[in-house]
Amino acid sequence: MDCRLGCGACCIAPSITSAIPGMPMGKPAGVRCIQLNADNLCMIFGQPERPDVCAEFSASIDVCGTTNEQALWLITDLESSTC
């Protein structure tokens, strides 16, 4: 499965403990990544400063569902069950 262009759920729902340019301490769950633009596209996609955890994410139906809203709900649920 390919990521849905403009979804951004994986850049909003999970906490990220790795440093992100502009967010040196990472980001808490539910907070938009500072590198996510208004169209929900990663501004550092493919760049070396992109955190490994972001680069290693791969979309799947189990995590992303069939809509952007479902992806946000599923990833939020996964995040809350791993805290």
TrEMBL record:
It holds the Pfam family CxxCxxCC. InterPro entries: Puta_zinc/iron-chelating_dom, UPF0153_domain. This is Proteinase inhibitor. It comes from the Bacteria.
